[in-house]
Amino acid sequence: MKTTDVGAVMTTDVVTAAYGTPLRDVIRALGEHRVGGLPVTDEEDRVIGVVSTSDLTRSRPHAAGPDGTTRPWWTRLPRRVPGLRRARTAGVVMTAPAVTVRARATVTEASWLMTRHGVERLPVVDDEERLVGIVTRNDLLQAVLRTDGDIERAVRRDVLGTTLWLTPRVLAVTVEDGVVTLTGRLERRSDVDMAVRAASRLDGVVAVVDQLSYRVDDRRPLSAGAAAEAEEPVAGA
């Protein structure tokens, strides 16, 4: 079944900042590269936060330090350097901890993360939390942009045909604004669960309305009598 992974749509040439990068350099990088935010990384290229334009335009009386603790930013500045108490760096204004995603996650999963956390971009990291790319909401939208007709054909081909090994017309499939409605009867209850789960993972699917029924509930244990009957050898076998 075809789904698009984050790794297929992410940008690998990522503009980053270090914790101590002066804020003026961050602002310059955002403008020169025409991006709305950039990851802040440590010496081992692990993501420790994100600086976005919204971070630069709102008051941030508290921010996370390199060790993840949160305290007023001015208390982390040296006291004996004139003017430094008024200075700002990427680490001072960044949002931390950063919300990240793996490259193998689907674009649907990444979209859920963005919506849940109210962010417009996600740093993409490997299994050791090192930065490998970045994905924006626009990247995800371009990846999942499908017409209702495209989605219906994908459901019939990938869910009914490939996943369940059924003829494409065995169920009624309707799609409206990305919402898939499945109607009809399948043999087993587990097939219903599989159909709904598989359809929900397709690119462009917003939700799945389950109007399916089943003939056999194969998720319920058989009674003693039914189990004995199922194990009884067939005459003449």
From TrEMBL:
Coiled coil: none annotated. InterPro entries: BON_dom (IPR007055), CBS_dom (IPR000644), CBS_dom_sf (IPR046342), Diverse_CBS-Domain (IPR051257), UCP036990_CBS_BON (IPR017080). Residues 10-68, 94-151 form the CBS domain. Transmembrane segments: none annotated. Keywords: CBS domain. It holds the Pfam family BON. Gene3D superfamilies: 3.30.1340.30, CBS-domain (3.10.580.10). PROSITE patterns: BON (PS50914), CBS (PS51371). This is CBS domain-containing protein. It comes from Streptomyces prasinosporus.
